[in-house]
Design goal:
5 helices; 161 residues; two-stranded antiparallel ribbon
Length: 161
């Protein structure tokens, strides 16, 4: 089953999500949000498998992990927006760079605080070993997604030439 889900993620990641800032539906007619949701569902199943969750732990983990993900996203959203803006602004001042740097530092700090908060919540029904393995599994998942994205972008560049 995991093999089928991995194939799905590869297919999903090969779909261009945006064209000149406008949402571009996939060949299957899926929106960016639907694709994101499918990736999240796959990620949850992947993490559950990697950290050896028992059946009675799964739903509680899924609910709590989704909650944590929403908080993490909210914590970094504004900093990422500022970061994108300053990269486009050729006339950015030192003060602009300072503002963005401070926002990125605050986002990282907030994200670490959220992670610590949820480690405590996870510890109510997960072992410390599972929590430790979760961190490794998250990093592994992130790296695999990054590799797929780079492979896809390389193929798109090759097709343009």
């Amino acid at each position: 089953m995991l093999k089928h889900l991995l194939i799905l993620v590869v297919m999903v990641m090969s779909i261009p999500l945006q064209v000149s800032g406008e949402e571009c539906p996939s060949p299957e007619g899926k929106t960016k949000e639907q694709i994101f949701q499918e990736i999240q569902e796959f990620k949850l199943k992947y993490l559950a498998q990697e950290i050896d969750l028992k059946e009675d732990q799964r739903q509680q983990f899924f609910d709590l992990y989704n909650e944590m993900t929403r908080k993490r996203f909210a914590a970094v959203k504004e900093a990422r927006r500022l970061e994108k803006e300053i990269k486009k602004n050729k006339n950015a001042s030192e003060e602009d760079y300072k503002t963005v740097t401070n926002a990125l530092n605050k986002a990282r700090s907030d994200e670490a605080a959220i992670e610590k908060e949820y480690d405590s919540k996870f510890s109510k029904f997960m072992t410390q070993k599972q929590i430790f393995k979760l961190k490794s599994a998250e990093e592994s998942f992130r790296k695999k997604m990054e590799e797929m994205r780079h492979k896809h972008h390389g193929k798109r560049k090759d097709k343009k030439n």
